[in-house]
Specification:
Distance between the termini: 65 Å
Oligomer: single chain
Strand order of the largest sheet: 1-2-3
Radius of gyration: 32 Å
CATH architecture of the largest domain: Orthogonal Bundle
Shape: extended
Strand content: under 5%
């Protein structure tokens, strides 16, 4: 795998293609023919697709062949003798791959890793860090994904349904805006309309935790700490997009999570993941299943279709809205969302009515006002100005008398218990705080 995406010239890409094996060339040409049959009529565009796929294969290098390695789907425990026997079996069955590839496969079996998926994710990282235009990156991801689907019939399992393919699209304001962001009342309707504990828990965990759908699907039971503070539970989340861990907290979801855990344990259905697949309790629920369920639920509860990612957007909108109003810091919102930078521009879906109110309050409040209204506001401003000046004078008086106050405080350690309590009460602080102040003042004086 190349560590960086090379800068290609057109003739270089053709030379790269010419060096591919006959098998690789045939697979590419078959794919291009398939795209033509599906409506890709522009031959220039067909050649673009050919160049995209050629670049992807070249950047992967030897790892492109390793995409065909067997995937490790079952969890197994191996002792030294079992590993030795497995190594012999690999050598016999896979004599057409190199010793290095055999070692790689053996290690993957031991560590329970999916080599093809890891390779593909590493490839996406290299592509993302390239200096290509966003539109070109998007095209490469889409066409290379489609190309791999034609080669591997088990692509869904092998590449985890290509969930790691994220397009660098501009924000789709028609799809995600203030009109379809869920309010708390909307989320309550979704939960009340859903009869199953499983899906009620899913809805509230994703909404309260502001999780990505994949993060919710892949949540293991071991990452939850119930009732860390009353009915608030703590969830450790591994961010599938940023590859970093973060901690989120949920409240309403606690009840349904505990109930779901109890239900699963009673029927022997508790597995690794909270929201596991119907037929395999040690696999997460399928992405398509989640999307289809939520679409129907939203239509039934709210009268309009929706998709689960809106739950994350809705919480993000509220968090960044609080940050905009200076009620919480932007860092708090950013950390809770698991963002590597301030993403308020993407998640703060400002309501036009809120903008109008802000304009009225901050811009339109003086211009074009009638004379009597202007006079009233001017009088109010003058009154506030006088109050501010008086406060400044009070502060000056306090500063002038600070030396007397310090002398007064330093006497506290020499006074009796009753006097200390009376003095503390008069200052609206505890006796212990008064003693601490006195000790600090004495230390300052000693340094001087």
């Amino acid at each position: 795998m190349k560590k960086e995406w090379p800068v290609f010239k057109r003739f270089e890409i053709q030379n790269i293609y010419n060096k591919f094996s006959d098998k690789d060339k045939k697979e590419i040409e078959d794919f291009l023919q398939q795209r033509r049959a599906r409506g890709l009529t522009s031959e220039n565009r067909v050649q673009d697709v050919k160049r995209y796929i050629s670049q992807c294969i070249y950047v992967m290098g030897q790892d492109y062949k390793n995409l065909s390695l067997p995937i490790i789907d079952k969890q197994i425990e191996l002792d030294k003798e079992a590993i030795k026997a497995l190594k012999i079996r690999i050598n016999k069955l896979l004599d057409d791959i190199s010793n290095k590839e055999k070692e790689c496969l053996l290690q993957a079996i031991i560590e329970k890793r999916n080599i093809p998926l890891k390779i593909f994710i590493d490839f996406l990282v290299v592509l993302k860090s390239s200096k290509l235009e966003k539109s070109v990156k998007n095209d490469m991801k889409c066409y290379f994904r489609a190309f791999l689907k034609t080669i591997f019939s088990d692509w869904s399992t092998r590449f985890s349904e290509f969930e790691d393919v994220v397009l660098d699209n501009e924000i789709n304001e028609k799809k995600i805006n203030h009109a379809n962001i869920y309010a708390d009342a909307d989320i309550d309707k979704l939960v009340k309309c859903e009869p199953k504990t499983y899906w009620r828990a899913f809805t509230l965990v994703q909404a309260e935790g502001a999780l990505r759908t994949k993060e919710t699907r892949f949540l293991p039971w071991e990452k939850i700490k119930f009732n860390v503070d009353g009915d608030i539970s703590e969830i450790e989340v591994y961010a599938t997009k940023t590859r970093k861990a973060r901690t989120v907290y949920v409240q309403k979801a606690t009840y349904f999570l505990k109930k779901l855990k109890e239900e699963q344990e009673n029927i022997g259905d508790k597995g690794v993941y909270i929201f596991h697949a119907k037929k395999d309790k040690n696999k997460p629920i399928n992405k398509g299943t989640v999307n289809e369920w939520f679409k129907k639920l939203s239509q039934k509860a709210l009268g309009k279709p929706g998709w689960p990612y809106l739950l994350r957007h809705s919480t993000a909108d509220r968090l960044y809205g609080l940050a905009r109003e200076n009620k919480i810091s932007r860092d708090v919102a950013k950390d809770f969302m698991g963002h590597s930078k301030d993403m308020s521009y993407r998640y703060d879906h400002t309501n036009p009515d809120r903008v109008k109110k802000m304009l009225k309050d901050q811009i339109f409040h003086l211009e074009n006002l009638p004379p009597e209204k202007k006079a009233e506001l001017q009088a109010l401003v003058e009154k506030q100005q006088k109050e501010i000046e008086k406060q400044h004078q009070d502060i000056d008086d306090i500063m002038k008398n600070q030396e007397n106050f310090l002398k007064f405080v330093t006497k506290t350690r020499k006074q009796g218990e009753l006097e200390n309590i009376q003095l503390a009460n008069s200052l609206h602080i505890s006796r212990e705080q008064l003693i601490q102040i006195a000790e600090i003042v004495e230390k300052i004086r000693e340094k001087k």
